[in-house]
Design goal:
CATH topology of the largest domain: Aminopeptidase
CATH class of the largest domain: Alpha Beta
Number of strands: 17
Helix content: 10-25%
Strand order of the largest sheet: 3-4-6-5-7-10-8-9
Strand content: 25-35%
Structural class: alpha+beta
C-alpha cells in the first residue's frame, strides 16, 4: 500500500492527513484555501470522495463528513476516503446558498473542464474536480431546511453504462434513506438549475457511481449522525470497513421505488400551511398545502397530481425566508411512486 499523494499533501497508509486543495484569491488579497482530509487505509480498496457545503447554508453535510472522519480508524480501513468538507467556502462564511463572490450555484458543471481564468466558483470547482476525477465512488452531502425529510438523489439517466447505473442504485440502498431517481422530471423549477449537470450527475456521465444526499436541518449539525451512519453503511457495502461496523436502516426509509415528478408552485401570495407531513406517502389528489391571506381565508389549495411523497416544502426561493410567500413560490418537491399500478 503506497502513500496517498495529492499536490503537496502526502498521507501514509494507516493515517489521516489534512491539507488544502489549493487557493483562490479575493480582490482584497485574502486567500480562500479549500480544506482537504484524507483517511488512507492500510490495505488496497476503493477510493470514496465525499463533498459537503456545495451550498453554503447547508452545513449539516460538513457535520456528517467530519463525524465520519472522527469515527473511522485508518488502521482498519481498506482503500481511501477523501473528504472536501466545505466546497463553497465563501458561501459557508456568508451563510448563503449561492456564492457571495460571483452569485454562482456550485451545484453545476464546474468540477470538470472548468474554464481557465474562470470566476471564483469555477476556480474552486476546478480544485475540487482534481479530487473527484480520482474517485471510484462519490457522495455529495446536502441538506434541506424544515419542513423536510431525508432522501437521496440518483441521476440515473446520466449514467455512462448499466454498470455505473447499478452501482449508483447500490450506493443509495446502502446509504439507507429513501432514494429517488431524478431522471426526466415533469415540472422542475428553474431556480434549482438543470439537474442533469449537478456534480453527481456529471460524475455518473464520466463513469463514477455517485449519489447526492439531502439531509435535514440544513443550518445545524443535528442531522450529522444520520449522515455519518449512511456513509459508514456505504463503506461497509464497498467492503472498505469490517462487517462489525454499527449501521442500520434509516427509520424514514419508504418502501417501493420513486421518481422525481417536480414541484408545485403557488398561484397566489399569502401564508403557506402544510397539510401533509414531509416524508409521508400520499395518494394522487391528496391535499398537501393551503395558502391563506392574512385574515386566514383560503386562497389556494395545492393537491398532488401523483401518488408519492414530498421531501421538502421550501416556500420562497431557496427556502431561505419564511412560509409567508409571494406568488410563484416553490411549495413542494414531489417524488412519484413508481410501484406497479401507480
Amino acid at each position: 500500500m503506497n502513500a496517498f499523494v495529492h499536490g503537496d499533501l502526502q498521507v501514509e497508509p494507516g493515517t489521516i492527513g489534512r491539507g488544502t486543495l489549493g487557493e483562490v484569491r479575493l480582490p482584497a488579497g485574502r486567500r480562500i484555501e479549500l480544506p482537504l482530509i484524507v483517511v488512507h487505509g492500510v490495505a488496497e480498496g476503493p477510493m470514496l470522495a465525499v463533498t459537503a457545503a456545495v451550498h453554503g447554508n447547508e452545513v449539516v453535510g460538513i457535520g456528517a463528513a467530519l463525524t465520519l472522519v472522527r469515527t473511522l480508524d485508518p488502521g482498519e480501513l481498506r482503500g481511501t476516503v477523501i473528504v472536501v468538507p466545505a466546497v463553497n467556502l465563501p458561501a459557508v462564511e456568508a451563510a448563503s446558498y449561492l456564492s457571495p463572490v460571483d452569485s454562482m450555484n456550485m451545484a453545476g458543471p464546474i468540477y470538470w473542464d472548468a474554464p481557465a481564468g474562470g470566476s471564483t466558483s469555477q476556480r474552486l470547482g476546478a480544485l475540487v474536480g482534481s479530487v473527484l476525477e480520482r474517485a471510484d465512488y462519490y457522495i455529495d452531502l446536502h441538506g434541506n431546511l424544515e419542513p423536510s425529510s431525508p432522501m437521496s438523489m440518483m441521476f440515473l439517466e446520466n449514467a455512462r453504462d448499466e454498470d455505473v447505473r447499478k452501482a449508483t442504485v447500490d450506493l443509495a440502498a446502502a446509504f439507507g434513506v429513501t432514494p429517488v431517481d431524478m431522471s426526466n422530471p415533469e415540472a422542475h423549477p428553474a431556480w434549482l438549475g438543470p439537474p442533469d449537470v449537478y456534480p453527481t450527475a456529471t460524475a455518473l456521465a464520466r463513469g463514477i457511481p455517485a449519489l447526492m444526499v439531502e439531509l435535514v436541518h440544513a443550518r445545524t449539525m443535528d442531522d450529522a449522525p444520520r449522515g455519518c451512519r449512511g456513509l459508514l453503511s456505504v463503506l461497509h457495502s464497498l467492503d472498505m470497513v469490517d462487517s462489525g461496523t454499527d449501521v442500520s436502516t434509516d427509520p424514514t426509509l419508504l418502501p417501493g421505488t420513486h421518481r422525481y415528478w417536480g414541484a408545485l408552485e403557488s398561484e397566489v401570495a399569502g401564508l403557506l400551511w402544510i397539510r401533509h407531513p414531509a416524508g409521508e406517502p400520499f395518494e394522487e389528489g391528496a391535499l398537501l398545502a393551503e395558502i391563506t391571506d392574512v385574515f386566514g381565508d383560503v386562497q389556494q389549495q395545492l393537491h398532488s397530481p401523483v401518488a408519492g411523497f414530498c421531501w421538502w416544502y421550501p416556500g420562497t426561493s431557496y427556502g431561505m425566508a419564511t412560509h409567508a410567500i409571494p406568488a410563484g413560490s416553490t411549495v413542494a418537491l414531489i417524488a412519484r411512486s413508481t410501484e406497479v399500478g401507480r
